[in-house]
Description:
The chain is an all-alpha fold and 670 residues long. 72% of the residues lie in helices and 1% in strands. The chain has a domain of 88 residues. Strands 1-2 form a two-stranded antiparallel ribbon. A hairpin with a 2-residue loop joins strand 1 and strand 2. The longest helix has 35 residues.
Amino acid sequence: MSQNKKKLIYNEVKELSFLDELIEWKKDKTFSYWLIVICSWLSIGLAFYHLFVAVYGTPEGRSFRSIHLSIMMILAVFIYPAFRTSLKEPIFLNKNSSDYLRLFGFSYDFIIIVLILFVQLWTIWDIEAFTMRYGDKYIGDIITGSILMFLVLDATRRAVGWAMVFVAGFFMMHALYAHKFFGFFYGPPTRLSKYIDTLFMTSDGIYGIPLYVASTYIVLFIIFGGILIRSGVGRFFVDLAVSLTGHRTGGPAKAAVVASGMTGTVYGSAVANVVTTGSFTIPLMKNYGYRAKFAAAVEACASSGGQITPPIMGAAAFIMAEFLEAPYTYVILAAIIPAFLYFVTIYFMVHIEAEKHGIEKIDKSMLPNVWEVLKDGWHMLLSLAVLIGLLIYGKTAMTAGFWSIVSVILLSFYKRNTRMSVVDLLGAFESGIKSTVPVTIACACAGIIIGSVFVSGLGLKFTQSVIDLSGGMLFPLLCLTAISAIILGMGMTTTAVYITVAALIVPSLIEAGILPIAAHMFAFYFGVVSTITPPVALASFAGAAIAKSPPMATAFESSKVGIAKYIVPFAFIYNPSLLMEGPRIWSFYSLISVLLAYWCMTLGLEGWFNGKLNVYKRTLALLGSVSLLIPPLQIIYGIQGFYYNAIGILLLALIYFVQGKLNFNLKAQS
């Protein structure tokens, strides 16, 4: 290959760990330096603790979860200090008013850490006596439980945001003072002692299923992802995607779809995925002629899809498996077709947009060779194979996570370009724990919500009320669920949204006759979609910042590009074969039918196929998509779904014939 050819260079954006910052520290070893030292080694120590537990088994459940939560809350105080932007910011400099405010913030943080240690010691000092006091508490238990709830809310404010604090605070106030509410929320109040019993003394509150999953499965998988990223797998995924798709129509954007989809299976955050891969793909798309807001929207939609893509999905997927009392492989299997349909729809959008605006392909001479890329990084994919193999073999998610971590460390030494130093490895452990902090805190706060709903009886009341409000009809019930999840998702993490909706509304879906896996997956999808839905579309805003496009316009463009994420959940509710339920032949048929439906929908929304589509042809395309989405075995107005699907195919064929003939005539005339 000629050396004077311009090459595409991927500049990887890597978040520095505390350990990296300590190594690069050029100033005197101030007080802030030693705070970062404590934070770094506390994170690394917790990572090794979880690896030890994965091998030798968890200790007594309550003490294990409380240790995990306590350290995570301490880390939340370190990472998100009061009245300071970071630990590196000095506490006291010029003795002005802002310095005194930072000093006050430090004093407040110190008190919070002392209270966290006090609650932890109270809990595990005599764990057997503590658990036996359920229903017969000391006054000290009530005080300690109240302190713990305050600490969880404070950590939530720091790591997750005020929105979840307000939601949890509302349910807490309702449980304790339901007699002060009116209308639907009116009810008998709960005594403080009983409330503390539920949220602090039992496993139905803060130390419930969400925290259990966060402290066992999720932390290991996030550490696994951190090691993969640290070893350069992010660069490998982008290079592989560019080499595979860059020379095709709309190649730059297709590379973004493939790269972000692959990287998203490792990253836990849609925003982090946008910032890393988007720093390369968005400028590339713009350079080749894509509109700025479209380039940002494609990256945002592709990046947010990582949370729904097997084998490593979002943290909520592990919690879903616990709620369903099913193995994690069951959730993975159900997620395969919907995730594939989502990414293929974005791919369709990119292709039509490229044809519509005459986007150039990338010259092959500028692209990395696919075989050279695979030669450099294929071995790292074996760790994913280890993970999938162990899960299929029937091993627990905890065991699979541990051996996946071991495998990725060993495999990284196979090639020089992926080999990690001791600092890299420890930094990966630390980054994994740091990434787990918001998830763990959100799970603990979600435990407050679940416990409050349980003790007040609001859950059963809410379920029945939603069914009554929908008039017993399925579609309005689904719309209410989707709207609730999107609204909650505007200020909460995907995990927190899913848990809240699963506690309040999913039971009503199941009571309406929907399969449990479909009901939970529906809530999961609409918890994820908030990252691209205005007005609070964090992934879209991150993409807009890189593309220098208007944030809100980018968010609306994302909603169009990622429209499949709004439609796929409705599709698998009415057609569970898309979740691999029932005979596989129907799953395959439904996959083909829905693929054609999304192609029709893309033509209708973009208004282009071998030339501009007029309003009539666009209407036919959209009608065809609706016809193809109907499940084959469903009977509507006495007509089986097969016939509706056939009508959709005929409409698509008609558009192909008319537009193809028109294009041929235009070429002949020219």
